[in-house]
């Protein structure tokens, strides 16, 4: 067995060991893998473009719920638009890429793997822990690869951020948020997501809880959550909130919080905070003022998808002999949203061709989902939730 280096980084540093599993090598290493893509929204069309541009994949069908006025990128117009998920499975694809509403993730992923396909599925993996475990169990029973869309795991700047943070503790203080002022079509998308998950903490909080779990090796022991419905656009009788906040307590004394809000009422001030503090200093993702001004001129804001992953700079503040020494690490040239999606799909291709054991990748997805669901439960029951 051999440890895999991913983008030149020893993934053991981040507890993401992908072990070579010779029993799963059912494909030849040079085979082009056929793909059916389900869902062509913001993430789905990005992944479809990644398959289109990667010679290791061949799209054989697209499935999407068409809306009035919706158009596809020119590069995708050459592909067949299928009428149903069942029609896609009938083509016997090597890979099914699932980028639809979260409530359908589990059933579609299970059906795809039982039909013989490997699966890429956007996060979160499911709307319940039981469903997420059902998907993982199916992957193990069918010997199919299951990759979940944790895009930050493929971002070199975030890998560096996590590595720098791990030098500072334990214990850690982990402070993160991603608020989005969304309006028009973007707010409509957020409302559709909330129809499934009820709380934005569940949809995007899994990313940042996953980052926290990579920074500290300590076991999360308690979760607290709160939330508010801040818009009459959301039905008052379905339990939907568009603002959420969670706090996690860890067994080594580390603490973490994450905040997220969606909608036209959200502030553009301090909407992107990524800050880790430990006894030996702090590390923060910061955007320089010149970049902020340029982004404002381009119309970038908290709702722009590239602003969700871009780091610009990482400030490392180390405590040495009682004094703080600061250094700024430039992340110039970091990948944009579409290149990150391309890296995710290359990871899927490599996992299939090289027979990686993705057990920990799948288990980590279930763990982060369980924590954000516990935070939502805490909000609704108005109490702290102890984790097993």
TrEMBL record:
Residues 34-150 form the Gfo/Idh/MocA-like oxidoreductase N-terminal domain. GO terms for molecular function: nucleotide binding; oxidoreductase activity. Gene3D superfamilies: Dihydrodipicolinate Reductase, domain 2 (3.30.360.10), NAD(P)-binding Rossmann-like Domain (3.40.50.720). Residues 165-263 form the GFO/IDH/MocA-like oxidoreductase domain. It comes from the Eukaryota. The lineage of its organism: Eukaryota, Fungi, Dikarya, Ascomycota, Pezizomycotina. Keywords: Oxidoreductase. InterPro entries: Gfo/Idh/MocA-like_OxRdtase_N (IPR000683), Gfo/Idh/MocA_oxidrdct_glycsds (IPR050463), GFO_IDH_MocA-like_dom (IPR055170), NAD(P)-bd_dom_sf (IPR036291). Belongs to the Gfo/Idh/MocA family. This is Oxidoreductase, putative.
